[in-house]
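In this supplementary section we document a worked example of the pipeline. Step one takes a protein sequence of length 253 as its only input; no multiple sequence alignment statistics are reported here. Step two produces a three-dimensional model, which step three serialises into structure tokens for compact storage. The input and output of this example are shown verbatim.
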Amino acid sequence: MILDSHAHVDVVPALGWYHTADKLVRQMDEAGIAMAAISGYMNAPGPNPDSLRTIADAVAAYPDRLIGYARLDPWFDDACVRTLEAAVRDWGCRGVKLHPAHYTLHPFGQQTVKLVRRAGELGLPVLFHCGDEMMSLPYQIDRLAAACPETTIILAHIGGFFSGNAALDVAARRENTFVDTSEIPLPHMVRRAVDVLGAEKVLFGTDGPSIDMGLEITKVKLAGLSCSQEEQVFCRNYATLMGIPVEDTRAHH
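The serialised model returned by step three reads:
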């Protein structure tokens, strides 16, 4: 059983984006992935007023396969918090995606802390793009995690190409912080994450459909984990985090 904690759906023809729910689910079927958490590529509030509707429509089309996350822009401060509340109330979103390099705010700034605390109050995990770009560095997000101990924080990509050890240091020191395996980390870094953090703090993710989902699965399998560790990374950890009954998802494969 495989659950993907980090994937995308967005359709913006002006930018050449045609990552539809149908395309993602086809790739999930080919790779053997039962469910995936999805967010868009554009922030709300923002230039695309339909960004949250796109995610909600995708989930409505595949309610047993997709989990909606709201991709948000804390620059809008209280308006962003209201957008988060509407995303949960009106669009059924169950998580938050933040990409600080795109809106150029420090993760530990007042606006982001306010938003992330509210997400925690609503029971939503917050998935951060975490890599080598300024505004997305692990130790910057560490300051936020310390300020928001009641909110679950996920550091995507195990910190990117050059910041992996820093991401593991942050996840080790913060009880509320996990890492995901999506896109960038090589198998040895997945192995190191399990060795440093324990398998229970490592989530499988693909960053699909632009990334080959089958390749992302192979990468984890090449990390040399035990069967029980693989089960935790591929399924159990995210199922526990999101309250997904694993027995229900087994029906798909």
